[in-house]
Fold this sequence. Notes:
Shape: globular
Number of helices: 14
Radius of gyration: 22 Å
Helix content: 40-55%
CATH topology of the largest domain: Aspartate Aminotransferase, domain 2
CATH architecture of the largest domain: 3-Layer(aba) Sandwich
Structural class: alpha/beta
Number of domains: 2
Low-confidence stretches: 393-402
Amino acid sequence: MTVTPHLFIPGPTTIPDRVRMSMNLPMEDMRNPEFPKFTLPIFEDLKKVFKMKDGRVFIFPSSGTGAWESAITNTLAVGDKVLMSRFGQFSLLWVDMAERMGLNVVLCDEEWGTGVPLEKYADILAKDTAHEIKAVFATHNETATGVSSDIAGVRKALDAAKHPALLFVDGVSSVGSLDMQMGNWGVDCCVSGSQKGFMLPTGLGILAVSQKALDANKTLNGRMNRCFFSFEDMIKTNDLGYFPYTPATQLIRGLRTSLDIMKEEGLENIFARHKRLATGVRAAVDAWGLKLCAKAPVWHSDTVSAIEVPDGIDANNVLKTAFYRYNTSLGTGLNKLNGKVFRIGHLGALDEFMVGGVLFAVEMTLKDVGVPIKLGSGTGAAAEYFSKTATKSAAAPATKAA
């Protein structure tokens, strides 16, 4: 029997049928005179998802890594000093990119399972009275470890030091699933990608840029070389509703539908749904007697849980068993966590039933590989939590007595 594979990695995420069908259309002329009527509202609706007060959003035919590169090359110069922290595979890769591009990185190397070190940031920024640091980088959601960080807290550290540095945020696995308040938090560049909360295939790098960062782009001396990811080229054509090169038109058609779905549900409802579903997953992990990679509840991510396996168990065996026996894909442990954790992605288009399904598969998998858990313990704990927290709108309508 052919069954659709059950995808529970933290991106790419499940694509809703409505989104998938909206991309199933003939290729179109991306320079036709009607195209701006389609594209210009998308730029404006994306700004609402990022909760921007000014600035603009760029859509690149790339992954989030391309948007990272665009943010750096358009606002900073070789040799600029930047403040960064490393506490997982993706914050590690961001540091690697910055160093390879010639930035002078002031690095806070943190324990994996923790996040952005606010006190260290505050101390470093307070001591930088000459304002040599030109940008502060913060990974909002570290996908490798299932850790979320306090971006509002980073802004408070900058404001307390009266520091003018730009604030860059990696929101690849948070935007559209966790609250991102670019305007209120004074974020200058926020990177996301199509394959996470936007519920699309990989292929769009989405970069939201504040007016402060746009101004930095105009006045920067010693700017980095760039071409494909140039702000200037994008602005010239985006203002007219077009792109400086062939855009991924079908993905952008899907993005239109995804934005419509997000508007219909409402951003605050989306954030609450992710919080609730993640809490159900964490209830299951507790019931199994296992631990999260995140070192404390303050770090818990509502989009992905990295779960540590007991001593003597290889997490890669968990992944293989889930895949081959139960047709379920879980996230692997990356870098130093390989073989030590498996990850459950719980972001994008999902509900209680889907979360219950992956917990059922994980529970059987853990039993199969020798983890001494009680079948039904985790799924039962999640079901108990979901039952207690069901909203009236989600509950079945009451039946009237005859």
